[in-house]
Amino acid sequence: MSFRLPPLNALHGFEAAARLGSFKAAADELHVTASAISHQVKNLEDHLCMALFRRDGRGLTLTGAGDAYRHRIHEALARLAQATADIRQGSAAVTLGIVAEAIVTERVLPLCAPSLRAGPAPLDRPADLAGHVLIHARNRLQWPAWLAARGLADLGVRREMWVDRSSAAIDAAVKGLGVILESDFLAADELAEDRLMPALGRVEDAVPEDAYFLVSREPSSTEGPIAAFRQWLKRELAGDRTLS
User: Fold this and answer.
1) Nearest to 77 by CA among 168, 14, 170, 25
2) In terms of domains, do 126 and 199 share one?
3) CATH of the domain at 61
4) Tens-digit pLDDT profile for residues 104-134
5) 138 phi/psi in degrees, rounded to 5
6) Are residues 187 and 152 in the same domain?
7) I need a labelling partner for 79 at 20 to 30 A (CA). Which of 69, 95, 214, 242 fits?
8) What is the pTM of this model?
9) 69 and 18 in one domain?
10) What 3-state DSSP class applies to 24?
11) Is residue 244 part of a domain?
12) Which string of DSSP letters, residue by residue, matches 181-215?
């Protein structure tokens, strides 16, 4: 349905002027000039092809049509305001109808190059990380949170490096530049080829978590393009990735 409506600011200006009885009072309420309210009302009257106010030396008086229109416009603006308040407060329920299916789990743990692990600086317990370069990337688990969970929030780390993404962090770790806190899923090739290894303990010591999801419309189907994409994605991941 197409709605042929006058400008909303003209309706606001008219409603305020009609309710308050003057362009000046309406202008003060809407934080505009009285001249702007006058122009808005004139544009609205031109749009409707009828007068809404009688203008004389004593002020403004609504015409019969203007009075009837004022009540309807006031109700409509009140409903718009309520609908806006409802959606902002979340009281308007919206059902998206989607399903999120976990397809990949990962373990996030400290990783480093074998040469660094075998180097002169010890790396036998979490506190030993203070003697190494910690490489930071933008991932879901950051070094401060990992250290704090092990009672090492105040660990005196002397050297740190920041990169934009996990791929850059992995490359830096492979070159022996420091220790990364990274996903075994994203570093799977480097781990399999022994270019990276757990800096502390074993990969299996870290807790696996659902990390990547396939989100689709409800209900889930075993046929159609979504099902075909799901099957293809799982085949691609099945080689050396952990699937749910």
Assistant:
1) 14
2) yes
3) 1.10.10.10
4) 889 999 999 999 999 999 898 999 999 999 9
5) -85, 85
6) yes
7) 95
8) 0.56
9) yes
10) helix
11) no
12) EEETTTTHHHHHTTS-EESSS-GGGSPPEEEEEEE
